[in-house]
Amino acid sequence: MSETYAVPTRVTQGSRGPIPSAEAYRETWLRAAANPDRFWLQIARERVVWRTAPTIGLEGGYREVRERPFTWFADGTLNVTETCLDQHLATRGDKTAILWEGDRPGETRTLTYLQLHAEVNRLANTLVSLGVRPDDRVILYMGMVPELAVAMLACARVGAIHSIVFGGFSAEALRDRVLDSGARVVLTQDEGPRGTKRVPLKATVDAGIEGLDVERVLVYRRTGGEVPWVAGRDLWWHEQVSSASPEFTAVERGAEDPLFILYTSGSTGKPKGVVHTSGGYLTYASYTHQVVFDVREDDVYACVADIGWITGHTYIVYGPLANGATTFMFESVPTYPDAGRYWDMVERHGISVFYTAPTAIRAIAAHGDDLVKRYDRSSLRVLGTVGEPINPDAWRWYYEVVGEGRCTIVDTWWQTETGGILIAPLAPATPTKPGSATLPLPGILPALVNQEGELQVGPSSGYLVITHPWPGQARTVFGDHERYVSTYFSNYEGLYFTGDGARRDGDGYYWITGRVDDVLNISGHRLGTAELESALLTVDSVAEVAVVGYPHQVKGQGVYAYVVLQPGFEASALVEEALNGAVRSIIGPFARVDLFQFVPGLPKTRSGKVMRRILRKVAEGEAEALGDLSTLADPSVVEVIKCGAKV
Ligand code: WT7
User: Fold this and answer.
1) More exposed terminus of the chain, fewer Cβ within 10 Å: N or C?
2) Are residues 402 and 534 in the same domain?
């Protein structure tokens, strides 16, 4: 049986948020469920600075989504930067907007709201002078420097659409995204320091865009290291921006105009460009950041994700800035110079809300409690996690060792496509259970269905779906609306399919069990098995390959590859290196196969379909429970696979 933790008094005391208690949560959730349209319209009007306030909530819905995307607040106009910056200038102009810590402990920078506003305007003027127009796509391939946030906001200010590519992606992956988005301008930096390494960002851009129609590359100088240069195309950021004016009138945008594209892996094909729009996304980012974390005026709020993923978009930049918070940005890794880095920063900066991923918690916990206890963590109040299911042991360690039982834990379930958190405790209101993301936010209507799409009631298990749109939901896949429809809305008519499985207990709490499609979640980063397989197949000696996930102590899931070699080739450490080399160059250094098993063949049905279920079971160490094998073309292959299993 799982225990329930009441919210510590330190967390409930002094809450000024709109949902300070369990009763307020229940009341708000019911009110929102009764009329989501009215609920969200009111929140949008309260929280966002509009040029023209919207009068319409939702138009369209899941059933008509094939014909046209649903919309929120369609008659509203705004520029999101006026909510994130301008509105704060009079009241919080000298408040720190961005508090940055570099790779080297203690190397810090701060930008007040006034300074951030001026920097964004300078870059906005620069972008316009480079020819960037509203609706143009701009690729950002940068590390965790304040200038990355400045770049996002400058794009938004001029009405351009940013598409951030995580710095751990390869030149090839970057190239795919530049091509798919049709971007003609790329913003990057010379190098990104990470622990003892320097990530060669500019050199990777050069390799990635070779031969493409990219007209301008603007390069922020971070390390001063030598970088390749293409005269006539490349420009130094500091040379352009220092002479640009700190005034810029934000471009008016429709609520449904795209704000950004973020590429994410699916179960098939190449990554898709998930499109988020302006008014609805901002409404949702602002509201969820406030109610989940209960952020207060003098908080130092720290989300240590990378801005290259959706977590950083919504909960480092747009949500916190919309709420006038001080948002922390961290350039380095949790284990540099040692595994006490996070708590060292908590002490030095007085961080009160701290948001990270289970994989980081597990990695740090493995180094022992001393590296935590050495630092003063009394400033902490709320501890968040995101990205993958958190195992109860890691949860308790976070709660007891890091938070000393004084803080509440918010396990937040959401996705790139959802724009913001959908299922999570509200810090001051929701009793927690280790391992459960708990309850849906107001305005969010989740459900569980079985294979046939039948809704399950009460305590049950099934596929997690959402039955009604919310403002932060992605509207389409860039350039491929049909793919959006077939990925999310064709499994179950009229329902958004999340791709996750879940259980709901007797208190209505959700327990996310993980992906049910062919998407892996490695250290909280999404990787498609199809993507990994096509990278592995580029290696000459490979005939066939199938990739599945398996339970991994630190990463949550690890990558397990079954490889059939061409005749005449033999398994060796060198072949494994070549295979991982291909993964590194096609996807990026953050992706790799953890375990290889070389097999004489893959288990297939008589019609030639690989039976992944069997491969998954073997990789999970459950080779004894394979179930019905009678449909296999050659059942003997399974015996060989079981004998050679790596787990
Ligand atoms: C997938 C989405 C949301 C930002 C980071 C990942 C898994 C996410 C949780 C959680 C259990 C979680 C799901 C989801 N996931 N948060 N709290 N508990 N699983 O974004 O790359 O779009 O991946 O991450 O499987 O579908 P993403």
Assistant:
1) N
2) no
Question: How buried is residue 647: exposed, middle or buried, by Cβ count under 10 Å (0-12/13-18/19+)?
Answer: middle
Q: What's the whole-model pTM score?
A: 0.97
Nearest residue CA, atom 12 of ligand 1?
388
pLDDT of 196-207, one tens digit each? 899 999 999 999
387 CA → ligand 1 middle, Å? 4
Give the closest residue (by CA) to ligand 1 atom 5. Answer: 387
Q: Which domain holds residue 392?
A: 17-50+72-432+444-498
Q: Report which protein residue has its CA nearest ligand 1's atom 18.
A: 389
Average the pLDDT over each of 1-10, 50-59, 185-194, 323-332 and give the range with the smallest value: 1-10
Tokens of 90: 């009079």
The CATH number that applies at residue 204 is: 3.40.50.12780
| pLDDT recorded at residue 625 | 83
Q: How far is the CA of 68 from the centre of ligand 1 (A)?
A: 27
Say if 56 falls within a structural domain.
Answer: no
Spatial strand order of the sheet with 272-277 comes to 234-236, 216-220, 185-189, 137-141, 161-164, 258-264, 272-277, 476-477
Name the residue with the closest Cα to ligand 1, atom 24.
387
Structurally, the chain folds into a number of domains equal to 2
What residue has token string 């094998």? 629
| Residue 637 falls inside a structural domain | yes
What are the pocket residues of ligand 1 if the criterion is a CB atom closer than 6 Å to any ligand atom? 264, 309-311, 386-389, 411-416, 437, 498-500, 512, 514-515, 521, 524, 526
Q: Is the pLDDT of residue 1 over 70?
A: no
Give me the pLDDT at residue 623, please: 86
